[in-house]
NADH-quinone oxidoreductase subunit A (Haloferula luteola), 123 residues
Amino acid sequence: MSSQFFPVFIQIVVAIGFAAVALGLSVILGKSARRNATKDSAYECGMLPIGDGAPRFSVKFYLVAMLFVIFDIEVVFMYPWAVQFRDLVANGNPTALVSIAGFAGILAFAYVYALKKGALTWK
């Protein structure tokens, strides 16, 4: 059993050894540049880096993004049902339309709830 894993062990040793040798040689042979404030500052396409690096987004942005993902997943669940609907009806499945109507009803209720709470209003 252990003889089967011997080639894998050798490959792991060679990979770790190669990474260690490559990093060691770059430290030993590489040139280290002199540091100064100008070269250590952030480069912003020729503009002076003034202010915060990342602008702050409103919570509404993230709320709308989460709602989009939730209602986008709805389509992922509805598409396979729509593809199989004709076969479901042909096989005499009476709950085919009721099940998707219940699913769409719950999502419609969630959408109305989000509208009433003001989740989709931008101010």
